[in-house]
Specification:
Blueprint lengths: L1 H7 L3 E2 L11 H31 L7 H30 L8 H38 L12 H15 L7 E7 L6 E7 L1 H4 L2 H45 L8 H35 L2 H4 L2 H19 L1 H8 L1 H12 L33 E3 L4 E3 L3
Parallel strand pairs: 1-2
Antiparallel strand pairs: 2-3, 4-5
Length: 382
C-alpha cells in the first residue's frame, strides 16, 4: 500500500507540444513574437513616455488632459505587460515549462489579467474622454460640470472597476507539475481549467466582457466622433462664409482652417484605427482555447490580432504629432528646455511661450480640447 501511494504522488512526465504543432508555427512565432512585436513595443514605450512628458506640461491643463494622461499610462503599462507575454509564447510556447513557481504563477494567472485589464482601462479612458468632448462640442453650455464626474476621481475609479471586472480571468488556467525525465527537477506547466471554462457563467461572462470593452466602445466612439465631425464641419462652413463677407482679411483664418481639417482627419482616423485594430481581438478572446491553438491558421489569426492591438496602443504619440500643432509645439519646447538658452537671462525657454504662433483653435488628439460652438470656435475646458 505504501508503494502504491508513493507511486501515485510522483509527478507525470511533461507533455511537450513540439511534436504535435504544425511545422510552420515556430517560424511564425519567431517572426511575430520575436521580431515584430518587440519592435512595436519599443516604439510604443518611447511614444507613451513622451506622451506623459508632454501632457504634464503647464499648458496641458484641463479635464481632457487628465483623461489623456490616464490613457497614455494605461497604454504604457499594457505594452510593458505585453513583453513577458511575447517571451512566454516565443520561449515556453503555450503550456510552458517553468522551474520557478512564481514565474509560473505570473504567466498562468496574472499574464492575461494584467495585460487585458490595462487595455480595458485604456478603452474606458478613451471613451470617457470622447463623451466629455462630445458634450462640450455638440451640447455647449448645457452641462456646467463634466458629465462623467470629477476627472481626478474618474481616472481612479475606472482602473478599480475594470480590474474588478477582469478578475475572473485569473481562474481560466491552472498550474500543473511534471518531470522532463525521471529524477529530473520539478517543472511547472499551464493547463486550462476546463470545469471553469465550460461553466455557463464563464460562457456568458466572456461574451459580455467583449461587448463592454470592445464592441460597445467601437460603436460609441464611431458615433460620437462622427457627430463631432458633422458639427465641426458646419461651424467651419459658417466661419468661412463670415470670413468671405469681410472686407478686411484675417491672416489667422487659413491656419485656423488647416487646424480644423487636421482635427477632422484625426477624428476619422482614430475611429477607423480603433475598429480595425481592436475588433479582431473580440473573435480571438471568445474563441481562444488549446484545441484552436493547435491549428496553424488560428495561430496566424492570433498573431495578427495581437500585433494589431499592440500597434493601436503604440501609435498614439505619433498620431498626436501628426495631427496636433499644439502638441508638436509643446513637444518642441519640452525637448529644447533646458538645453536651449535665451539671449537675455541664459535660462531655458519658458514653457508658456511658443516659438510658433498659435492659432485660435487648438487640438490635442484622441480626443482634442478644441471645440466648435454654433456661433464661434473657442477653447473649452472639457
Amino acid at each position: 500500500m505504501v508503494d502504491v501511494l508513493n507511486i501515485s504522488n510522483v509527478p507525470n512526465i511533461c507533455l511537450l507540444p513540439d511534436d504535435m504543432e504544425d511545422p510552420r508555427t515556430p517560424a511564425l512565432r519567431r517572426i511575430s513574437y520575436g521580431i515584430v512585436m518587440p519592435t512595436i513595443c519599443c516604439l510604443g514605450i518611447i511614444g507613451n513616455i513622451l506622451n506623459l512628458v508632454v501632457l504634464t506640461r503647464r499648458n496641458m491643463r484641463g479635464a481632457a488632459y487628465i483623461y489623456m494622461r490616464g490613457y497614455s499610462a494605461a497604454a504604457l503599462l499594457a505594452i510593458l505587460f505585453c513583453i513577458p507575454f511575447a517571451l512566454r509564447v516565443l520561449i515556453h510556447k503555450e503550456t510552458g515549462g517553468w522551474s520557478s513557481w512564481l514565474q509560473a504563477f505570473y504567466h498562468v494567472h496574472l499574464e492575461l489579467f494584467l495585460g487585458n485589464g490595462c487595455l480595458g482601462v485604456g478603452v474606458m479612458m478613451l471613451l470617457a474622454l470622447t463623451v466629455e468632448r462630445y458634450v462640450s462640442v455638440c451640447h455647449p453650455g448645457q452641462h456646467t460640470r463634466p458629465l462623467c464626474g470629477p476627472p481626478h476621481l474618474t481616472v481612479v475609479l475606472i482602473p478599480l472597476a475594470t480590474f474588478l471586472v477582469y478578475l475572473p480571468s485569473v481562474f481560466r488556467d491552472e498550474i500543473t507539475t511534471c518531470l522532463l525525465a525521471p529524477g529530473s527537477p520539478l517543472i511547472y506547466q499551464k493547463r486550462e481549467n476546463q470545469s471553469f471554462l465550460n461553466s455557463w457563467y464563464y460562457q456568458v461572462y466572456k461574451v459580455a466582457l467583449e461587448m463592454v470593452f470592445k464592441v460597445a466602445p467601437t460603436i460609441l466612439l464611431a458615433g460620437f466622433n462622427l457627430r463631432i465631425m458633422i458639427v465641426y464641419r458646419r461651424s467651419c462652413e459658417r466661419r468661412r462664409r463670415m470670413t468671405l463677407s469681410r472686407t478686411v482679411s484675417n491672416d489667422e483664418d487659413p491656419r485656423t482652417f488647416a487646424e480644423e481639417r487636421r482635427l477632422i482627419l484625426l477624428l476619422g482616423s482614430t475611429s477607423i484605427l480603433f475598429l480595425v485594430c481592436v475588433s479582431p481581438m473580440v473573435i480571438l478572446n471568445v474563441t481562444l482555447s488549446e484545441s484552436n491553438l493547435s491549428h496553424y491558421p488560428y495561430q496566424v489569426f492570433r498573431a495578427l490580432a495581437n500585433l494589431l492591438e499592440v500597434i493601436y496602443y503604440s501609435i498614439t504619440f505619433y498620431i498626436y504629432c501628426l495631427f496636433s500643432e499644439d502638441f508638436r509645439n509643446t513637444l518642441i519646447r519640452t525637448l529644447q528646455w533646458p538645453w536651449v538658452k535665451n539671449e537675455q537671462g541664459g535660462r531655458g525657454l519658458p514653457m508658456k511661450r511658443s516659438p510658433i504662433p498659435r492659432p485660435t483653435t487648438t487640438t490635442t488628439t484622441p480626443p482634442t480640447t478644441a471645440v466648435a460652438t454654433p456661433g464661434h470656435l473657442a477653447r473649452a475646458s472639457v
